[in-house]
Amino acid sequence: MINSFLDTPIEYLKGVGPAKADLLKSELGIYNFYDLINYFPFRYVDKSKFHKIRDIYNESSYVQVIGQITHIELVNKGRQHRLTAFLKDNTGVIELVWFQGIKWIKEHIVKDKEYIIYGKPNNFNGKINIAHPEIEILLEREKKDFEYQAFYNSTEKLKSKGLDSKGILKLICNVIQNTEFNVEETLPLYLRKELNLLNLKESIINIHLPKSIELLEKAKFRLKFEEFFFIQLKIANKKNKRKLKNTGFNFDKIGDFFNNFYYNNLPFELTNAQKRVIKEIRTDMKTGRQMNRLLQGDVGSGKTLVALMSMLIAIDNEFQTCFIAPTEILAQQHYKSLTKLVDGLGLNIALLTGSTKASERKNLFSYLKDGFINILIGTHALFEDTVIFKNLGLVIIDEQHRFGVEQRSKMWKKNDIYPHILVMTATPIPRTLAMTLYGDLDVSIIDELPKGRKPIITWHVLEKKRYSFYNFIKEELNNGRQAYFVFPLIKESEKLDLKNLEEGYETLKDYFKDYKLGIVHGQMKNAEKEAEMKKFILGEYNILVSTTVIEVGVDVPNASVMVIENADRFGLSQLHQLRGRVGRGADKSYCGLLTDFKISDDAKVRISTMCKTNNGFEISEIDMRLRGPGEMEGTRQSGILNLKIADLVNDVSILQLTQQIVNNITQNDPFLENINNNLLKKELYFLKIQRKDWSNIS
Ligand code: ADP
Ligand code: MG
Question: Which ligand is located closest to the Cα atom of residue 555?
């Protein structure tokens, strides 16, 4: 929380003129003292420890050495200028190199004086040197037993104005060593006691100027806790308010449609996870409040069926429903499979996509308005204002990460009372991340695949094994199975990608002479694409060559082989999605990940992960470790990941702790009205007016 001292604009700080103030604002978003003390270091160095030159290796991270500069060399070669200083201690000599700021160094370095230098060793032509080290005269610093120095991220622009890491630290000291400095506590005493948390003021002081390792650790813990805690609390608060505000339709009936389907049409037994999730949805739709739920389930876990059964509940309660998919192919496929599933129940199902003809639309719209259509399936076309329902009760959005937040919220407005919303995703993300990111949605998880599914056998196929792998594919094709070949988007240019794909297609046609091959890609007209897909679905093609347009949802149970060319160029979640196109019916399915011999280390991890596991949640954990949470599919739009100090990968245990504590608090006191939670309410309000807004997902 802010007080008047911390609220002081940054230009009033000693050492900050107008120019520096402008840069602090534009480069780091620091507007006042409060922002400055909340700019946290990314690293600490124990300045009481020194290295011997003899012990410095190329791989050493930062090192600190005391030594004398014996001599200096200046090189001026054409445009290249370089200054090399030779630093010596009693174990050896190391070169210090400057390419910039040469003049200053030359004028200030005094030979044979003792210096402390600090920097990162590099290997340069087989010799180890340190480029642009920090350097200070030993006498300037009194030696202490403990001296942890904080390091801050800076930028070129800031550095040019003297605001490198040290410069920033100096400014921070000017604030926290001021007699007026104070930080008001944000967490109630009962919480701090229970969790043995350092108070906020001490935490801020120690994060910048640690007095001991123990205090530094406690400060870090407190501030990370604080950061996660208020994100969670804010989401929970928002969710509670929304629940209170948004009344919803009460679907308390289970009627003939649901029962007839369940007893007569259901083609297989539901998995336990499906049963559990349907129950969760059902319970949620009869609370009298609007449902806003995310259904997560791995590829092939049977989300469509759950969606259908939820729609049947809505229809039993005399409401209309709609089902929105991100592509035309998918919408068509859902239309077909749902129509088949509800055969004989007497339901009216319609399809609306971008290519629905105007004349058809007219009829469709009037049937929709009359309430004649029970289920409308379609694409983005459904968002349009011309699509008007008589009484829309439930909206299902498949592959929700493909839609923007605004698009999704359009569906809310199709009724005076908001319809229930179920969004589905087959891109599993780690649970911890889901709870943070989608914290204001309720989450249902299908964590079980239908019985009898065999894991897809996955191989890393190196170039030299390509043809023996192709021969294996021929055997599968001869057994009546089908195969996908997927080519990556390599270049930014769509034309070049197409060329890459078409060349691949021609080569494959030669090799698989006796088989029929189809091709689909993003540049084709929808009708063409549909036609090709259809032939593959009907088994007229043995092989489908494509780009990642087939990535989501496409369901051809007879396909048993997925070949991914240049697999090292795909992200993990994409590989997993693509692989999910097979293993949907065949006894055994296979996935070949083709790459060159030489691939990056990250690519190796991705591919070995794919070969090791079929579990999408496990894969997403590894994906998050490799790429960082901010790069995960579906997270990019969320500012929630601009964390100041906490880390979604390394601080998961703290995140879980805060989740648990926020749950406890909001269960007993959803609107923070208890006097003990007064501080929390105040801080939430403060964060809100500060517009440090994190997310708005649903
Ligand atoms: P996703 O969750 O990826 O959308 P789908 O809903 O497309 O998965 O289901 C994948 C396949 O599994 C479909 O062919 C579907 O008919 C089948 N399926 C769904 N539920 C079951 C079940 N309980 N038992 C057997 N097969 C199922
Ligand atoms: Mg699906």
Answer: 1
What DSSP designation does 264 have?
I
pLDDT, average across residues 56-61: 72
215 by DSSP, 3-state: which? helix
CA 91 vs. chain centroid, Å, equals 48
The domain limits of the chain are 1-44+152-182, 49-146, 457-613
Q: Is the minimum distance from the CB of 303 to ligand 1 under 6 angstroms?
A: yes
Cβ contacts of 402 within 8 Å, gap of 6 or more: 326, 552
- Mean pLDDT check: name the lowest of 368-377, 413-422, 627-636: 627-636
Distance 305 CA to ligand 1 centre (A): 7
Mutational pocket test of ligand 1: of 304, 306, 399, the residue with most ligand atoms within 8 Å of the beta carbon: 304
**Residue 142 Cα, ligand 2 centroid: separation in angstroms?**
66
What lies within 8 Å, CB to CB, of 387 at 6+ separation is 352, 365, 368, 376, 381, 414
pLDDT at res. 647: 84
Residue 558: predicted pLDDT = 92
Residue 157: half-sphere exposure toward Cβ, Cα within 13 Å: 10
Higher pLDDT, 691 or 126: 126
Pairing state of beta strands 127-131 and 121-124? Answer: antiparallel
Distance in angstroms (rounded) separating the CA atoms of residues 562 and 550 = 11
Whether ligand 1 lies within 6 angstroms of the CB of 430 is answered as no
Angle between helices 213-245 and 678-689 (to 10 degrees): 80
List C-alpha distances in Å: 694 to 228, 439, 538, 597, 698.
11, 11, 47, 43, 13
What is the tens place of the pLDDT at every residue in 623-663?
888 877 666 655 544 555 678 898 877 888 898 899 899 98
Candidates 275, 305, 377: which one to mutate for ligand 1, based on the most atoms within 8 Å of Cβ? 305
pTM for the whole thing? 0.71
State the chain's maximal CA–CA distance in angstroms: 96
Q: Is 580:428 a contact under the CB 8 Å cutoff?
A: no
534 CA to middle of ligand 1, Å? Answer: 20
Domain 1-44+152-182 in this protein, CATH class = mainly alpha
Residue 232: which of 443, 439, 441, 444 has the closest Cα? 439
Dist. CA 330 → ligand 2 center (Å): 8
Asked if 183 and 6 touch (Cβ cutoff 8 Å), the reply is: yes
Q: Looking at per-residue confidence, does 61 or 513 come out higher?
A: 513
Task: Give how far Cα 266 sits from Cα of 259, 263, 589, Å.
Answer: 10, 7, 25
% of the chain surpassing 90 pLDDT: 52
Taking each helix axis from N to C end, the angle separating 165-176 and 200-208, rounded to the nearest 10 degrees, works out to 150
DSSP structure class, residue 377: E
Cβ neighbours for 53, distance < 8 A, ≥ 6 positions apart:
65, 67, 87, 88, 89, 91, 92, 93, 94
| Segment 134-141 mean pLDDT | 70
CATH of span 457-613: 3.40.50.300
Say which CATH topology domain 49-146 has. OB fold (Dihydrolipoamide Acetyltransferase, E2P) (2.40.50)
The ligand with the least distance to the CA atom of 300 is: 1
- Residues 668-679 pLDDT 10s: 998 899 999 999
Distance between CA 93 and CA 82 in Å, rounded?
18
Q: Confidence band (pLDDT; 50, 70, 90) for 462?
A: very high
